[in-house]
Amino acid sequence: MKSLLRSSSIGLAISLFTTVAHAEVPSLRIPGHIVGARPSALGGAFTAVADDQNALFYNPAGLAKLDSTFAALADNTLSVSLGSGGIGALMDDFDKISASATGLAGNKDSSVLIDNISKIGDVVSSRTASAGLKVQAYLAQARWGMAYTSAIDIGLGVHAKILPEIADIAILGDQDLRFGYAHRFLDGRFNVGVAPYYKLRAQGGRANFSLAEAVDPKQTLKNIVGIGQGAGVDVGFMVTPIEAMSPTFGLAIQNLGDTRLYKTGSSLFSNVELL
Questions:
Q1: What single DSSP character describes residue 21?
Q2: Contact criterion met (CB below 8 Å) for 115 and 107
Q3: Is the Cα dihedral 171, 271, 200, 174 positive or negative?
Q4: What is the separation, in whole angstroms, between the first and last Cα of the chain?
Q5: pLDDT digits (tens, 9 = 90+) for 75-130
Q6: pLDDT tens-digit map of 71-82
């Protein structure tokens, strides 16, 4: 019991630390496919029981177990979020904002304008914003399926000193098209599946982005964002040794392929994984 409590305490502490560590920066996950309630709850264990459309992404061998058709155009969402250092910080600096506004209104000297704008910038220094758009369509039935995912996330962190370097920018994008097929052996006690895919991904960002770089948006985007594409395949197995007892074992080998950035030639989110 003590060991369980100790483990729970450590896990909670790590979780809280991680939350705090990412609270003030534009932290964006890699956009991906829809994760339903079952795979989310089961985690890696879903590899052995994948029997719905999520098998396309977790273990393609699970397509052999489908006994109905799954089809949807889902998660077509636009999300926007804003964060700040808290209303308390803003209230504490109300006098500073008021004084700065007075300075802006009463003096046309450029150096004074910049100084006052910077003071206002101090108040909103921890402001962050992110926006995302995600769309997914899938069709899956016994032995085969296909899915398409398109997603993009953009994050922005505003600097304390607004001029001349105004923000940090992060961009992540994902296009994923995949097909899956599974075959049953030994009356379904041994299933093998493959899911070839094509991916187009973008990753980029710039710390200390300045107004000078915003003159030519196309050139700016080209300089800070790397775009890569690639094809690969996921392979999966499901084994039920004793049908009467129905224990099932699953193994999935994911990302047997490579997606590379054109700009740098470095691997982009495509490490081989065993589940």
A1: H
A2: no
A3: negative
A4: 29
A5: 666 666 655 543 334 444 444 544 544 444 455 555 555 555 555 554 445 566 77
A6: 877 666 666 665
